[in-house]
Input
Amino acid sequence: MTDVIDSLVGIGPGSKLDAIRAQRTEARKHAQASYTSLFEPKDLGGVSADERHAVASFVAGLHGEPKTDAFYAAKLPAALRTAIATEVAAARTKGPYGHFPKGPLSVEDAPGPTWKVSDAGRASLGPRLAAAFEHTHMLVFHPRDASAASLQSLLDAGWSTDDIVTVSQLVSFLSYQIRVVSGLGVLASTL
Amino acid sequence: MSTDKTLTPPPHTEPVVFTRDMLDWLPWLEPMAEADMTEHHIRSLVDAARVKSPYFRLLARDPDVLEARTRTDKDIFYNPEAGLPRAERELAAAATSRLNGCIYCASVHARFAATYSKRVDDVQRLLDEGVEAKLDERWEAIVAASAALTALPMTFDKDHVERLRAVGLDDAAIADLIGAASFFNWANRLMLSLGVPATQPK
Output
């Protein structure tokens, strides 16, 4: 199938970036395999296809990457797309912020919001996705504020330990994919 | 409702500064038990020795993603062909981890950066002072580009590319830097959110 990063950057066969990416064949192949394992897995386990695309679209929206957002959002029902867009508009901020463990680094603590899904959003997303989105916002903008309590909130909303590993990988992989797409896009514009 | 629980790590000392010391990592969720791991899970670790790591045994709960993640990681950092020298791929990883605040990731990749570059003082200054630390023109350009790719909104632009070219990076090296800094935005988020670093007993 089409390489998602190539397609989002617009890397055509025989282009300079195609040749550069070809020097890292394994990274290229396994970035794509990461995508496939997350979005077209052999077994969805406890995380549905809609939940996977919803989290991905939310992450891309928070990063302000319309092309990547559109790619994932296209796989979603219209009502869910609209609910996500509303939450993204309220949730976007600057990062990374957050607290360090108390000590010499505390002078670098950068306070910022602990974002919560709106009441309307909670109604349209349901409790599982609402909890996942709140966790996702923390992972995207202030990952150093993570705690066992954030994971407990996911468990309380009905995600299992296996599911949380998958959701964490979804957010973290998107954080990678979006930056590669953006970075290579900038590089391509200078070639 | 899930019956799974978070874990309370045993008594430990959390590091409160960025360091090149070896650290431990204690999970907040139950890693797989070695005895429950199938061949599929073991294969996902890529390096069999990682079966001793609670971090990798936790990620092995989604084995296909772990395997793809690990093989991506290895090519970005270990492929010796052309591109950015290993020391500077590690520098990009350390700078990204410093900005995101991942003390564990920063410790590992600062050690690698120091080992491969032999510039222990510069690496330590990055850990002590952060991504604005005075290094030299080339390293400052690499750190600034990594920070710009990590910040939200992302600020990486043509000026960063030109600055990297001016200090001697070719297109393949710049692509490696983008890969290394981006990958640590993946790794930092897993490491920071699934458990906590601990100092090793002396």
Observations:
- Residues 78 and 86 of chain B are 7 Å apart (CA to CA).
- Chain B touches chain A through 71 residues (CB under 8 Å).
- Chain B has a mean pLDDT of 97.
